[in-house]
Amino acid sequence: MKVAKIMNLLNEINAKHRFRDPIYGYIYVTPDELEIIDTPLFQRLRRIHQLALNKYVYPTAEHTRFVHSLGVLQSATNIFSSIQYPQSSTQIYSPTESIIDHFKILRFCALLHDIGHLPFSHAPEKLLLGDNLTHENVSQYIIENYPPIKDVIERNEINPKIVSSLLSDEYKPKHRILKNIISGDFDADRADYLLRDSYFCGVQYGVFDQTRYVSSFRLTSDLEPAIESGNVHTIESFLLARFWFYMQVPFHRTRKGFDKVLEQYITNLHEQGRLPNFGIHITESQIQEIDFKKFFLFDDPSIIECIKRDYLNDDEFAKILMREKHLHPIFESNTYDKKVKQEYLETIRRLRSQGLEQDRDFFLFTKKVDLHKLSDRADESPENIAPVVDKERDDMVKGNLIEESPIIASLQASPAYIRKIYVMPGSSQIADDVRKQMDHERQLREQTEKEIHD
Amino acid sequence: MIDRKEALKYVLSYLKQHHRQNSKIAIQKTMYFLKESGLPVSYSFGAHTYGPFSKEIMHDADQLEMEDELIIKNVSYDLGSAFQVDLSQDDKDQIEQHIQNFIDLINHNFDFNNLEIYGSVIYCRQILKKFDEPVNLDNVYRELKSWKGSKYSYSDVRPVYESVKDYFAL
Fold first, then answer.
1. What are the residue ranges spanned by the domains of chain A?
2. Phi, psi dihedral angles at A393 (to 5 degrees)
3. What letter does residue A130 receive in the DSSP assignment?
4. Is A340 part of the contact surface with chain B (CB cutoff 8 Å)?
5. Residue A221 forms contact with B (CB below 8 Å)
6. In 3D, which of A145, A127, A111 has the Cα closest to residue A278?
7. N or C end of chain A: smaller count of CB under 10 Å?
8. Which of residues 243-282 of A touch B (CB under 8 A)?
9. Of A122, A143, A146, A119, which is closest to residue A133 (Cα–Cα)?
10. Which CATH architecture has domain A3-254+382-395?
11. B50 and A380 in contact by Cβ < 8 A?
12. Which residues 130-149 of A have a C-beta within 8 angstroms of B?
């Protein structure tokens, strides 16, 4: 990492305040950024846990969206300062929008990217915001309309819509590099949470060489993000860290079980009209208005208070969320094997035939986990996946990551297909009987096949 | 809103059946055009390497693959054994009309570069509108250049811009 270059940029924007941080040592902020951090809606992020109920698996995972947001600010700064630009970089910067303007836009966006998160992160999003909106839409609305934040951005002669557009897919093409730093190929968001979440979980799954990682990238003359050939192993390590982290932390069997129960619990609260008023008014898949005072008070503790009340009224979901009772995982697989898939579907069919109901008596979780997001770029053409350039030869593209990395090539072809079934404690005996019967039938089948074969 | 996954499936089957098109870029750019020309589907599209691109389409395709409705190949899709479209005839008619408009706009030319430049020009036009900036050839070209460097010349962009302008003016 080119420390001098980072400090020069930070000096140019007067980043004179700093916080101690276990990942970066210091996180530097400007007086204007500090003003944003001190707003009620940003302080609210102290009450939204980064990993929701992962703390029931990894007890020390108590960190919040607040510290992650500060971390992404520093991570984005480090990547921005380290990217090598081609000669054609004049196409990106102009007298009306300098490199410092871009740096400020990026930092506002990094700081504010999670400000619209709902309690327990992703669990209630679909229910409360509908199929077509996410917390990022809420963040965009806040950036464009919440006066204590909007005014600070405008004071810097930046249109808040430019900042918020980087949280959407509709941004100006000239800001594509900034978008890539926030959540694309360079991925400051992920670079921070892999390290931070691993640190606070006390695991090593998400750890990678961040110092080398942030200086691994260049832009080609077509302004495409590219990897310097000497850094292929660094990227391999980052992608493997990401994969292991997903499989062991957010998609951990126990965590996903709690997520499913929490989603259903919040659904029940919502349907019964007992969910606290969170102040977001939506019509026709658009946020019409946010009551910022109500949204300020909508956080993890406001859901916990509901759980505690329902626990006292013997609510079965509340008992699980208070860790008095536990879901029973009865099926788990990570492979695409057709036999396994048939077994999964047959288990569900038999649970239903025994009168059990999905999301009341049992829960399902399915997810395809690819090794890396770089495959996004391969979706239309295989020719330009994560180009690898040779800096000794005038940044000539010498191939792509798949060609240059046998590890990535082999793992790319075999993503994980996660399938899990959980059963509520009251239905576990029925589920156990179903599984025993299926095991028995399988053994008989295998025995018959063996006899025929012999 | 039309259920986006069902709309995606219908576009896939229609393009394959009537135009022998099942490439990922054809699906991506057709869906983008459908959305920008007013079909109520909730996909969002960003400025990617080959023009507007929706990761949500890719994620929905992954989900359809897990349900045996789709077979994902390197740069194309095939219909899977459980493939089935659940849309009303009105929705199907509406989608077909938009697809036909798109095919007319691109002069029935599904070549990779043609799809890329049409998709990219429409994206630049729409983004200028979003930021309340004047929509004209010079500004569209400026946006495109900041995205794709020198890949497309002014004379490449001009005819595409003119036909896109005419279509969206209707």
1. 3-254+382-395, 264-367+417-453
2. -120, 55
3. -
4. no
5. yes
6. A127
7. C
8. none
9. A122
10. Orthogonal Bundle (1.10)
11. yes
12. 131-132
Of 3.30.470, 1.25.40, 1.10.10, 1.20.1250, the CATH number of A264-367+417-453 is 1.20.1250
Return the CA Rg of chain B. 16
User: Do the domains spanning A3-254+382-395 and A264-367+417-453 agree at the CATH topology level?
Assistant: no
Among B55, B75, B146, whose Cβ lies nearest the Cβ of A91? B146
Which among B23, B48, B66 is the nearest to A417, CB-wise?
B66
Q: What is the DSSP string of B5-52?
A: HHHHHHHHHHHHHHH---BHHHHHHHHHHHHHTT-------EEETTEE
CB-CB under 8 Å, B146 with A382: no
Which residue type, as a one-letter code, is found at position A183? Answer: S
* Residues linked to residue B106 through DSSP beta bridges, in sequence order: none
Dist. CA A132–CA B136, nearest whole Å: 31
Using CA coordinates, name the residue in chain B closest to A419: B66
8 Å CB contact of B25 and A223: no
Contact residues, chain B, for A417 at CB < 8 Å: 66
- For residue A93, list chain B residues with Cβ-Cβ distance below 8 A: none
What Cα–Cα distance (Å) separates residue A428 from each residue in A101, A318, A326, B146? 59, 18, 10, 59
Closest CA of chain B from A223, distance in Å: 6
Cβ within 8 Å, pair B46-A221: no
Per-residue pLDDT of chain A (454 residues; tens, 9 = 90+): 456 778 888 999 999 999 999 999 999 999 999 999 999 999 999 999 999 999 999 999 999 999 999 999 999 999 998 887 765 554 556 656 788 999 999 999 999 999 999 999 887 888 889 888 999 999 999 999 999 999 999 999 999 999 999 999 899 988 988 998 998 777 899 999 999 999 999 999 999 999 999 888 888 777 778 888 899 999 999 989 999 999 999 999 999 999 999 999 999 999 999 999 999 999 888 899 999 999 999 999 999 999 999 999 999 999 999 999 999 999 999 987 888 989 999 999 999 999 999 999 999 999 888 776 555 555 566 555 678 888 777 667 788 888 888 888 887 777 888 999 999 999 999 999 999 999 999 899 889 988 887 7
Of A132, A222, A377, the CB nearest to B149: A222
Residue A449, burial from CB neighbour count under 10 angstroms (0-12, 13-18, 19+): exposed
Contact at CB, A368 and B65, closer than 8 angstroms: yes
Say yes or no: A224 contacts chain B, CB-CB below 8 A. yes
The ipTM (two decimal places) reads: 0.81
- Put simply, the answer to whether A377 touches B123 (Cβ < 8 Å) is no
Place of tokens 């208005």: A289
Give the Cβ contact number of residue A8 at 10 Å. Answer: 11
Distance of CA A321 to the CA centre of its chain: 22
Closest-CA residue in chain B for A386?
Answer: B49
Give the pTM: 0.88
Q: Do A88 and B150 touch (CB under 8 A)?
A: yes
